[in-house]
Please model this.
Amino acid sequence: MITTEPVGEWFWEPSPVLDAAASGASRAVALVGEVRDVLASLGLVGDGGTGSVEVCELSAMGRPVFERRDVPLDVLAGQAAAVRLLPDQFLTVVLRLPGEWAEAGVRRRAEELFVVRVHLWGQGGTVLAMGVYADPWLTQDLRERPQPEVAAENAPRLAAALGRISALTRSEVDPGDETRHARPTPDGFADLLAEEAAYADSWGTFEVPARWRRLMKLLPGGYGEGDYEATTEEAVRYAEVRCGERLLGFLWASADGAAGYEPRSAAGDAAFGAGVPWLLRFRAARSGGAGASAALDGCLGRTEAGVTVGAVVHRAPSLDALQELSGRG
Model:
């Protein structure tokens, strides 16, 4: 399963510490690039990815004095070269990377599988962090189903990456705190078949509501009385939502009057924005007195802002089953 919050994180304090006064921003960008190269050498990340850099005053962390967002790493490197970090400033470089893993020999991909960050203080001090956003390293998936074979295919490469990053930074890895999903260790994750996870069905309990809240923040006015019910215990009819050949999510409706959109987690940020125009169409249909099923039918085969709803209707036995489909690679 793929998540929007990290399944686990690890931290390093590079030695020697980056010199903030001497092109610290450029060195921080170079460091996240070196970590990307480590992950790529192990087949964990693919082509693509975007980076961001932000500089804030320590006294006003929410108001950047310099920022560049969502640009390729080579572009980011050129822009960071102009940054000179002052003693009372704090710099953050973030690299979001698409990645791949194997399940029974089949390659899976997520558009945001790893996130690498470097935090640099102008007065001195550097922290490197890396988070992962899927569960193929775990012996039990996020819905509590054993998957020792999947972990055996993927966990060794994650362990190798953690070791190589420690060698790169000349520092020991510090596993982050236990998350809602799993407990990080110096060489990956604790064995969930040997010790229970902190929460039952953490993907359904936490990730599905988090995705819905994120989607509602993009919807003008959020979720309101003018929208169809967002949940159902009935079977659902659904259609694929695509941009070209890229599957972004699923538009759905049920016989009891519920309707909505499930973003495909593997598609990353684009999956969320793609659902907004169709939810607005649903809102307009409901205000006009249309039922949920009729509203879905009215969207079939249509295109909005380059995003198309398929003309073919599929069926899932439940909304939970459709949500699980949307959370896989």
About this structure: The longest helix spans residues 148-169. Helices lie at 24-41, 73-80, 148-169, 202-218, 270-287, 292-299, 319-326. The two ends are 7 Å apart (CA to CA). The chain has seven helices and 15 strands.
